[in-house]
Design goal:
- By secondary structure, the chain is α+β, with helices and mostly antiparallel strands.
- The chain has a single domain, classed as Aminopeptidase (3-Layer(aba) Sandwich).
- Helices cover 30% and strands 34% of the residues.
- An 8-stranded mixed β-sheet has the order 1-2-3-4-5-6-8-7, with helices on both faces.
- The longest helix has 13 residues.
- Bound molecules: coenzyme A (COA).
- Coenzyme A binds next to strand 5, helix 3 and helix 4.
């Protein structure tokens, strides 16, 4: 099980989430996402489906952030499906820690994600972590906004695959 302590915020623990975290995840989801919030069924799915990386950031026993990813071995790609940190805990390095931990947990040579074109905080986060835009999905979101599709190649994972 992946278990890290944030370097930026004392007492932040990044660890695997389980179905027992459903209620807290609902609260995080509603704090982080407005009309993009996932349904209860989607949240149950992300906490239970196989082939999924699911990590939570916890401070003083309370979930303050969450990240999940689909591990697509046939594409040698991990897709970050969601990442969020509640408002009161942003700009403290927790999103970065969740992103790093997700990349490590999925253990794929390539990681992809999509983001609203207007979501500058998330785009800044991803760019800072080495992601670049490689595609645009027109009218991807329900309100018609375009998605930027971003990717990153993880050197150590690539070397691991090449030498396997
Ligand atoms: C995107 C999000 C996860 C970032 O989480 P976070 O814990 O604040 O991120 P970090 O503190 O690790 O930030 C790392 C870097 O990302 C960039 N960044 C993060 N938030 C930013 C903001 N509001 N404006 C500009 N840059 C920002 C900065 O470069 C930041 O480094 P710095 O603080 O040293 O300048 C958080 O804002 C969030 O949950 N947003 C709502 C949900 C969401 O949009 N998720 C992404 C869906 S694709």
């Amino acid at each position: 099980m992946l278990n890290e302590t944030s370097q930026n915020v004392p007492g932040v623990e990044i660890t695997a989430a389980t179905w027992r975290d459903l209620n807290e995840l609902r609260a995080v989801e509603h704090d982080c996402f407005d009309h993009d919030a996932w349904s209860l069924i989607d949240l149950i799915g992300v906490l239970t489906l196989p082939g999924t990386s699911r990590l939570k950031a916890v401070v003083n026993g309370r979930m303050v952030g969450f990240a999940a990813g689909d591990i697509r071995k046939d594409e040698a790609t991990g897709w970050i499906s969601t990442i969020g940190v509640i408002g009161a805990y942003r700009r403290l390095g927790i999103g970065s820690r969740l992103l790093n931990a997700s990349e490590k947990d999925m253990a794929m040579p390539r990681v992809c994600l999509c983001v609203r074109k207007s979501n500058q905080p998330a785009i800044q986060l991803y760019t800072r972590h080495g992601y670049h835009v490689f595609d645009h999905w027109e009218r991807y979101y329900e309100d018609g906004e375009e998605a930027l599709v971003m990717e990153k190649y993880l050197r150590s994972q690539r070397i691991k695959i090449e030498t396997a």
